[in-house]
Write a structure and sequence with these properties.
alpha/beta; 9 strands; five-stranded parallel beta sheet; 249 residues; elongated; two-stranded antiparallel sheet
Amino acid sequence: MPLWTHKVLVIPFLPVGLCISTILLGLLCRRRWLSGLGATLLTLSSMNVVSDRILGSLEHAYAPIRVENCTSADAIVVLGGSVRTESPAGALEWNESSDRFQRGIELFRAGKAPFVVFTAARIRWRPGITEGALLRDEALRRGLTQEQVVVPEALVENTAGEAETIRQLMTRRGWKRIILVTSAFHMRRSMRLMRGAGVEALPFPCDYQARRQAPLEMMDFLPQAEPLLKTERAVREWIGILFYAARGK
């Protein structure tokens, strides 16, 4: 699926786009109930009590694993999406998925695989430089060697592309099994695509964002920006899962 397709065409189906469209349609058609429905959906999407449950439905697909309990493999594959930008001083600025990189390094230092793989995801703010290259440099600064860090040359723009690139890399190197590191909410789709590409992967979910077993508080029922972002992240992921399921992947 082209980058613009899954980034742009899904916007009308995400909470903000869907709610605004519903409100505007209600105003144009003079249907108060329709505008009220849009406002209600936006309010609910902005509550922790809603976002945690939608995101949690994805995060529960695979059980969390401690680094020391993880099975060994031929390589540790860290999926892209953990770098937000680069500071004026040249340091990486991490986003909420930075755990992917951290857990990958921890697995390597625990001796779970002799190689760490960072996929070559495109980054808009550094044309010609991939996220994999930036993460490789960061891993080298943390003590890994050039031989231990692998960044495939093939540029990838989505998870399906990452799965195919990993399959080709495993074929060339004779690897049989990898440890797949990505955010817990993203693991269900990632594992499905890896299996579809013929990759044997051990799931290592991280970056849990939905609160687990926390008692509800008044703030959980108040609209806030962060829960809205979590709801959008979960809805986008479910759309991706359904899209690939419709294509038989």
